[in-house]
Amino acid sequence: MIDYGLEEVYSHISRTDSYTLGVVWDDCEQRDVASTITSTSTASPTTVVADSPDPELDQNFSIAISAGISAGWSEGERIGDCLVDNASQITSAAKRGVIDHGLGEVFEHISMTDQSSLGAILEFCGVQKDRAAESGGVLAAACTLDAEVAEISCQASGYNPVSTLKWTSTGDYSGKTGGTRSGGASWDFTVPDELIELEAKVFLEECEGSSCRTVETSVDTSVFYSEDLTVECELDVELEEISCQAIGRQIWPQLTWTSTAIWDQREDTPSWLFTVERLWDSVIRADPGNDPPGVTPGAAKAGGHQEGEVDLPVSPEIQVSLEYCKNSFCKNAETSLDGAALLYEDTAGLDRIMLSVPFDLNDPISGIIPMGETIAHAIPAGHPGMDLQWKDHPEGRPEIFASATGTIDWIDTQAFHTGAVVTDHITLGARLRHEGFDKTYFTTYGGLALDFAYELGDTIQKGELMGHIDVNPHEAGFMIHWEFGVLNRFSAESDARDIRWCPMTFFDETSRVVMEEIWEGTTNSFKDAFPYICSN
Question: 29-43, 94-108, 181-195: which has the minimum mean pLDDT?
Fold first, then answer.
């Protein structure tokens, strides 16, 4: 007050200091008004000497008062009547100021003497000067948004300086209540992410005693929905886990995670941790007339594609996608990870495997059921290998040989089945693990006779006899199911451990030519629908 005076002090002190000063100010004014009313209960106030009577001026003053008193005041008419009744006690200059400028601005245009004259009657009638200065407006709330920090700033206008203001908003949990002299006329609040909508509604309630009025305004917050989320993921090779996090303002209530490395999806969480369950190999296509580096000469022609192209496996790419939505408005974010580290140890510089057919070239098969067919094997996986068939074999049981040197890492027995029918014919399956190459490969031999002579951990050399095929009483001729692929670094229990590949680009030249000739002469129902050795 010493530095700025009573007129400006509230603009320079804290809310706490405003409150303490306001409390004492209100108390002093109430006592002063009560004293004035008591001392003048039988006469008009005479604290200021008024000018000579001027009926015309008083009439215009009365009109101005009627127009200037806010209709929102319950006591507005009473105050107006009181001012008109005591117009003779107000200086002519003060009355002209009210006529010219209205009660809301009159104190800015008249002298201190005239302010004292008008102020004394206002106080006598129960109104403070600063209350009159506000009476010319209508209660309103104006709000602005600082999008960078998600802060909304609001300012009230047209309020009664002695009233209580209560702020609330759909973008805030607590709101704010306070007297106008203690900072209640303004409100700044930060909208939490979970309350951000396309707009924030702000409500301002003004109360004087039991009389209240409310106004509402809206702040456009749709700018936040123009912001995109991004996805960051990390791969833990040892744990075979992927951890992902959505980056950005978390205002989207509907989140859906998916990935090519897992069957399930995750919803309504900004982060996702999952164990890799599957990997999809990508392929490149080789031109029929140009064998890619490292591929058996002529292998492109043997790949089994209509254009004569061949699938060449490349490192799998793991895709992770996030769909984020607000009601029906949705966006997508995605990222990818290189899955090569999950598949193989680093064996760069080592040679590719070279395969031979698993049968005697002097006792060749007579037909092939192709890899990838979905007639006898369900979509989408299809036939994971190929079936090598002999229509008849008068020399006895056909012999099966190792396609490459390897160690037996899996042996199992199972009942032969035709479609959904399981028979009583039991066969044996075995898998060879082939190491020392650019990848860890495998070959699987299904349908062997039970007199299999090897155990887990035994090593079998390329071309060495593995076993025989028994007569199957439920099927004409003889058949072995044969698969080729690579093993990755996953645990043995993982569904993503083995990946099957078309073997045609890995056969030696003699084996490849024999397989092509046999396929050319194959006639069965599978070939009509799947015209290539590898149709996957």
Answer: 29-43
Q: pLDDT tens across 425-453, in order?
A: 888 999 999 999 988 899 999 999 999 99
pLDDT digits 0-9 by tens, 84-107: 888 888 999 989 988 888 776 787
- Distances from the Cα of 191 to the Cαs of 83, 154, 184, in angstroms? 46, 13, 19
Cβ atoms 487, 440 nearer than 8 A: yes
8 A C-beta contact, residue 507 and residue 296: yes
Q: What is the distance between the alpha carbons of residues 441 and 433, in angstroms, rounded to a whole number?
A: 6
What is the pTM for the complete model shown? 0.46
Question: Percent of the chain at pLDDT above 70?
Answer: 76
157 vs 145: CA distance, rounded Å = 18
Cβ within 8 Å of residue 22, ≥6 positions away: 179, 181, 182
Return the biggest CA–CA distance within the chain: 144
Residues 6 or more apart in contact with residue 238 via CB below 8 angstroms: none
Instruction: Walk me through the domains of the chain, giving residue ranges and CATH numbers.
Output: 44-134 (no CATH), 140-223 (2.60.40.10), 239-343 (no CATH), 367-529 (2.70.70.10)
Alpha carbon dihedral 56, 60, 61, 62, in 10-degree steps, equals 100
Contacts of 131 (CB under 8 A, 6+ apart): 160, 161, 162
Encoding tokens for residue 259? 């990935």
